[in-house]
Design a protein that fits this description.
Blueprint (H helix, E strand, L loop, with lengths): L1 H16 L11 E6 L14 H10 L1 E5 L8 H7 L6 E3 L3 H9 L3 E2 L5 H5 L1 H8 L4 H8 E2 L2 E2 L12 E6 H6 L9 H13 L24 H4 L8 E3 L5 E3 L4 H16 L11 H10 L5 E4 H15 L5 E3 L11 E5 L9 E4 L4 H16 L1 H9 L7 E2 L5 E2 L2 H4 L1 H7 L12 H6 L3 H11 L5 E5 L10 H22 L5 H14 L2 H11 L2
Parallel strand pairs: 1-2, 1-3, 12-16
Antiparallel strand pairs: 3-13, 4-13, 5-6, 7-10, 7-11, 8-9, 14-15
Helix pairs in contact: 6-14, 12-13, 13-19, 14-15, 20-21, 20-22
């Protein structure tokens, strides 16, 4: 025994004399991780190839909490005193409630830029720093790793290329009047060539996308709360311009340009009708256009492509386009539990930064392994079976957003070999509109509006009922306008506005 100790001491002495270092492997760092769950409610798996890959690459030990934030498991977990180091979910707003309850810790000032510089550079490239700061902070402290799916133009109106050709359209409209004429052609010009009057120009499903550029002409997004230059918050559903928009939509409905089933149609219904040729114009954001509408259209008509309409000029000569307010603390943002050690915060920041910096890592985490989770054709196009795309498969193997919630840009779309996304992003980049209208609210509240949380669903019900009844002619817009405004206030609109405005006094 003495000989072994002596030999060890001699070895240490020799190493010190010759400048050598003895290193011992660090123990893997435990990280209790709440992953981004699938909307279908599967409970995340605690062991899979993706976890093994992350553990080995970053010398960590991921301990997945078995809960899905889309289910009641989320509320039960926190109510029963649950905790985690890293929380990456679709419930950013709910996590900020946990901040108020003291369950989530802050990120020390400067750490985001220091330990995740590539990630933050990507965010700052598309969102002003002050907006980023406002969305991720409370009381001057940063609380999350920001994430956004925001692009310069989020909503677009698209046509089918085969309809453009059949109708002999050589120039797309650049004015509101020209757009009105295009809608007439799509409705009455028999674009599908079947000799039957069975097409409509427009369908505005009740999903927030509605009729897009039409409200742009008036400079607002319907049914939203807007903070004005006077620091006063108002509800766009009470604007005089909104009443004008309802008159236009009612006129077009009576003219037969709007599919009467828009009242009950979903976004999927709009996509299906567009692909089938029953409506001429579809409205959606980049993700839905690339990942849902184009594949559906190609399946039904392989030769057809999307043609992007550009926003037309308003009366004051400005071109408006809708985009999302970049709330970087919403779906996909990353938070840290109150007991999460600083070392874990730094490690997670570095991991998230690598997902932006290393596209091969991104592809591995998001899509898995080539030949196992997807295949590539001779052109590098990625293909997955229906099973590989399914939520159960994604959950079982820890793919896609489970661990990798990365802001998608053209570079990432290229890494994904997603030709549809590349095409859509290129077309959106051509959008000439310099004036952006925010869909939904155009500001980030500095604190929680309790009146909004309690009463806005009733406000929205009154708003939607009048919206649909006005367009379909079931109510006289002018005669019922004052009664509509009174109903909004009766169910709490003024209380919501008062609480918002108190924040900005």
């Amino acid at each position: 025994m003495k000989k072994k100790v002596s030999l060890f001491l001699v070895l240490v002495l020799l190493c010190s004399l010759f400048g050598a270092q003895i290193s011992f492997a660090e123990e893997p760092m435990d990280i209790h991780w709440i992953v981004y769950g699938q909307t279908t409610g599967e409970t995340p798996t605690t062991s899979n190839r993706t976890i093994d890959y992350l553990n080995e690459r970053f010398n960590i030990n991921i301990i997945v909490e078995e809960l899905n934030s889309f289910t009641e498991q989320w509320n039960v977990f926190w109510a029963s005193g649950g905790s985690a180091d890293y929380i990456q979910t679709n419930k950013g707003g709910d996590v900020f409630k946990l901040v108020e309850q003291g369950v989530v810790r802050s990120i020390p000032d400067g750490w985001l830029d220091e330990y995740a510089p590539d990630l933050m550079a990507q965010i700052y490239a598309r969102i002003p720093k002050d907006v980023v700061k406002a969305s991720i902070s409370r009381d001057g402290k940063d609380y999350c790793i920001p994430y956004t799916s925001n692009f310069a133009t989020s909503f677009a109106m698209v046509l089918r290329s085969d309809y453009v050709e059949k109708l002999g359209i050589t120039e797309l409209p650049t004015t509101f009047e020209g757009f009105h004429e295009l809608c007439r052609q799509l409705t009455f010009g028999d674009p599908d060539g079947n000799g039957i009057d069975d097409t409509y120009a427009l369908n505005g499903p009740q999903t927030g996308v509605e009729f897009a550029y039409l409200s742009c002409m008036y400079g607002f997004f319907p049914g939203a709360y807007y903070l004005g230059e006077d620091d006063k918050v108002t509800f766009t559903g009470t604007y005089d311009q909104y009443k004008e928009l309802l008159h236009v939509l009612n006129d077009w409905y009576e003219e037969g340009l709007i599919d009467p089933e828009f009242v009950t149609d979903t976004r999927d219904d709009m996509h299906r009708k567009f692909a089938e040729g029953r409506i001429g114009i579809a409205v959606n954001n980049h993700g839905w256009l690339a990942n849902t509408l184009i594949p559906m259209l190609k399946e039904m008509n392989p030769e057809a492509e999307l043609v992007f309409l550009q926003p037309w000029e308003s009366e004051d000569g400005r071109q408006w386009a809708h985009t999302f307010l970049a709330n970087c603390a919403g779906d996909g943002a990353g938070f840290f539990g109150i007991d999460c050690p600083d070392e874990v915060v730094k490690k997670v920041l570095q991991i998230q930064n690598e997902m932006v910096k290393d596209l091969d890592l991104y592809k591995r985490l998001y899509f898995g392994e080539e030949g196992v989770d997807y295949t590539l054709d001779e052109n590098g196009q990625m293909y997955q079976t229906d099973e590989q795309k399914s939520a159960s498969y994604v959950t079982k193997h820890g793919l896609k957003q489970t661990f990798c919630v990365r802001t998608i840009d053209f570079e990432a779309a290229t890494a994904m070999q997603n030709e549809n996304m590349r095409f859509v992003l290129k077309e959106l980049a051509k959008n000439p509109a310099e004036d952006r209208l925010y869909a939904y609210n155009n500001f980030i509240a500095p604190e929680t509006n309790e009146a909004y949380n309690d009463l806005n669903s009733e406000v929205n019900t009154i708003y939607k009922e009048f919206y649909i009844n006005a367009i379909t002619g079931k109510v006289d817009i002018d005669a019922e306008w004052d009664n509509y405004l009174a109903q909004l206030n009766q169910v709490g609109l003024q209380d919501i506005l008062d609480e918002y405005n108190a924040m900005f006094e």
